[in-house]
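My current task is to audit a protein record that another person submitted. What it holds is a sequence and that sequence's fold in token form. Thanks in advance; the entry in question is below.
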Amino acid sequence: MTIDRPGLIVADHWRDYQLLDCGDGLKQERWGPYVLVRPDPQIIWPRAGGEKRWEDWDGFYHRSESGGGKWEFRTKLPDEWTIRYGSLTFRIHPTGFKHTGLFPEQAVNWDWFTAKLKAANRPVTVLNLFGYTGAATIAAAAAGASVCHVDAAEGMVKWCRENAARSGLADAPIRYIVDDCLKFVRREQRRGRRYDAVIMDPPTYGRGGSGELWRLEDHLWELLVETQKLLSDRPLFFLLNAYTARLSPVVGTNLLAALLGDAGGRISGGEVGLPIQRDGRILPCGIFARWES
């Protein structure tokens, strides 16, 4: 097995999305025709040029001292709109938790596994755990894979279905599953199902459909072990993402080395980032680890 030292991969092929500027705990982003300002705890540097505030924005998410927040809209925005990445179309909707339904930095991972799936020259089954609104699911389906999309939130699975339809993939071989990921993985073991590739995007904290508490540091290894049992005899890749700033990218590669060390192949990992248009610097947006055959 080869283990590459962690590096940085950057999602720099977007046209409908731009990270315009960052500073003082905030990021200014263009989502299609609209500019949104949202907080980001990693942005601890000041705004460039000594600017005190940005004047160009349509929506501004204000964080409250209690930990919640709310949107202020200067422009009357539609309830939802779409942006595109290549052939993929995504529904964008500003939610009460500051999110928009898409993590644009993950486009660099979509590009990576799209190339892997197309180069495989065989039918490939993909399991996407914590699939959220399904960007990775529809990217894999567009590359020709059969995908099982799992998320504990029914609304997120519905959103994935909508993204698939908007991307011309309404009839693609996608299974939409609302379930706790660990419980689902164990049921798949009993059913004898196997997958050629896994995408796993676990939250730092969360609750399952029945209120089960999830803490990434406490529960991730158990899930990895159970999921590994679902790999086919010809596995193609295993992709792990994490967003907690407390974890080093080395942790991700160490986890996959412990999990798949006997399988040969190659492990790589590092940070995922977005280019800042104003000055060309990079905003770190999480860590990734990949095993590939």
